[in-house]
Amino acid sequence: MLTAYDFPSSKQAEQAGLDIILVGDSLGMTVLGYESTVQVTLDDMKHHGKAARRGANDTFMVVDMPFGAAGVDEKIDMQHAIELYRETKANALKIEGAHTAPLIKKCTQNGIPVVAHLGLTPQSFGITGYKLQAASKEEAETLIEEAKLVQQSGAVMLVLEAIPSDLAATISRNLSIPVIGIGAGADTDGQVLVYHDVLNYGVDRKPKFVKRYGDFTTGVDALKAYHEEVKAGIFPSPEFTYKKQIMDEVDA
Ligand code: KIV
């Protein structure tokens, strides 16, 4: 699984043969320049989800329910879920936190597949901070119970973020739904990373669990070269200019 937030990135993910595209609310930081995912709105998710779908029609696409859109009021949450699912043509919605189990159940009963997200849930960073979760015996036991709860509520998949790898392995073994890890070690059923982290594209921080597979920072050199060539009169050369001459025919 890889995040993608727009037409070109989802198209690339599909061309690369990724199994699942996640239109994650991490787009708040990676493409909208917000400080956290808390600023991301339902309209942001609809806008990006629709664009990502246009780039990747044939890939299973999951769209995040943003902060405040789920787990607050059951009736309104459900309305948000229906709109997001319908308008983005997502294959599933991702919802953070075990407290959303009733909504997972309701979505499932109404035909909307849900991917649950436990461990570090970035929408709650104000409470948890951005750090390893479930690092004590009690927290680990709670997480195991929460994982069972979201599966029982109907989740079709579970994302586990920033937890000890042996705990992630145990949860993966004990659940029948696929478990996708990020910062959760190698023994989950799959992995997810953020597009901009993988490609070193406009990101300043590198969390421990991120591996870079490309380097978009070279884009800045390309933009500098373009700027220099225009200033120096090198671009556009004849190669980049239409051959057709018209001024012989024009009275000017
Ligand atoms: O929004 C996101 O990108 C995510 C992943 C980090 C799992 O939720």
TrEMBL record:
Annotated protein name in UniProt: 3-methyl-2-oxobutanoate hydroxymethyltransferase
CDD domains documented for this protein: KPHMT-like (cd06557)
UniProt cross-references to SUPFAM superfamilies, sorted A to Z: Phosphoenolpyruvate/pyruvate domain
EC number(s) given by UniProt: 2.1.2.11
Keyword entries, A-Z: Cytoplasm, Magnesium, Metal-binding, Methyltransferase, Pantothenate biosynthesis, Transferase
Cofactor binding, per record: Binds 1 Mg(2+) ion per subunit.
Gene Ontology terms for molecular function: 3-methyl-2-oxobutanoate hydroxymethyltransferase activity; magnesium ion binding; methyltransferase activity
Subcellular location: Cytoplasm
Assembly mode: Homodecamer; pentamer of dimers.
Binding of 3-methyl-2-oxobutanoate, residues: D25, S26, D64, K94
Broad class of enzyme this protein falls into: transferase
Pathway the protein takes part in: Cofactor biosynthesis; (R)-pantothenate biosynthesis; (R)-pantoate from 3-methyl-2-oxobutanoate: step 1/2
GO cellular component annotations of the record: cytoplasm
Gene designation: panB
Primary role: Catalyzes the reversible reaction in which hydroxymethyl group from 5,10-methylenetetrahydrofolate is transferred onto alpha-ketoisovalerate to form ketopantoate.
Pfam families xrefs: Pantoate_transf
Catalysed reaction equations from the record: (6R)-5,10-methylene-5,6,7,8-tetrahydrofolate + 3-methyl-2-oxobutanoate + H2O = 2-dehydropantoate + (6S)-5,6,7,8-tetrahydrofolate
Residues annotated to bind Mg(2+): D25, D64, E96
Active site per UniProt: E161
